[in-house]
Amino acid sequence: MKKWKQKAIVQKVISYLPFSQKINYLFQRYVTKGVNLSEEYFLDRLGHAKEHIKGYQKITNNKVPQSCLEIGTGWYPIVPVSFFLTGADIIYSVDIAFLTSKERLQTTFQKFVDCNKAGQLKDFIDFIPERFDVITSLMVDYDKYSLKDILAMLNITYLIEDARHLSLADNSINLVNSNNTFEHIYPEILIPILKEFRRVVKKQGGVMSHFIDMSDHFAHFDKSINIYNFLQFDDKQWRWIDNSIQPQSRIRIYDYKQIYSDLNIPVSEETFRPGNMNELKAIPLSEKYTSKPLEETAISHCHFISDMSTVG
Description:
There is one protein chain. This protein has helices at residues 3-14, 20-32, 39-60, 78-86, 102-117, 129-140, 147-153, 187-200, 235-241, 253-262, 277-281, 294-298; strands at 67-71, 90-95, 156-160, 175-179, 207-213, 269-273, 301-307. The protein is α/β, with parallel strands linked by helices. Strands 3-2-1-4-5-7-6 form a 7-stranded mixed beta sheet. Strand 4 (175-179), helix 8 and strand 5 form a beta-alpha-beta unit. The termini are far apart. The mean pLDDT is 93.
């Protein structure tokens, strides 16, 4: 049995268990090694932080968003810490479960320290030295601080709540961002989330910036399949395979653009990876993916930046 099928079965079983998120963390840490903070993942997220800030600066002519909201931060808050280091004063992370920990924060800090020692950090973010000193000071005597204290020192607040009903005021956030999160949210949930983002983002000087990874995430783990493997299944088949631990919506770039259009959210700037047409053609596509041009279906990653001051 292929590795991706084994993982799918295990995660499906885990999804029905109590404390499923904690069990899945242990499974990925000790079996699939999917939650270890690799250098590749760290630099990828630093790259996202760089692009979020660059997009914000281009649209607003402001150097730093004073208030930020990220959805789906996950195990390691690399982007929120990046925003703190560049000068953000209010940083929210919203998720359905609290996935970080004091240990994972320490791992994140060490990556920032190592990256700076290697002379790489300045290539990604224009960090404030005094704010970097906060992290280095924390690391000297880390055990004496509580998780609550550490987050407060970083201006980070976790909102463990339904992102469709945020506890934030209207017109209160400068920058709303996500990093390969939307692909885990089915349209019936993503649409009301985007409506909430539109509500809380500032109408003047507000920006949304979202990275979306439309590849089959099982292919990240099992190299015997390509990134389009999951497009061979119809919706009924996929419901049996998919799980609530790490769901994959499988929607394509044209679907996201339609959702944005329906919600009157502009795609002010867009970048994408064209994907691999040969790999896509090697998959017997389900009928739902054959009605659009293959070049659009093949797009594997995209980044949408939205100037929300243009929204009435």
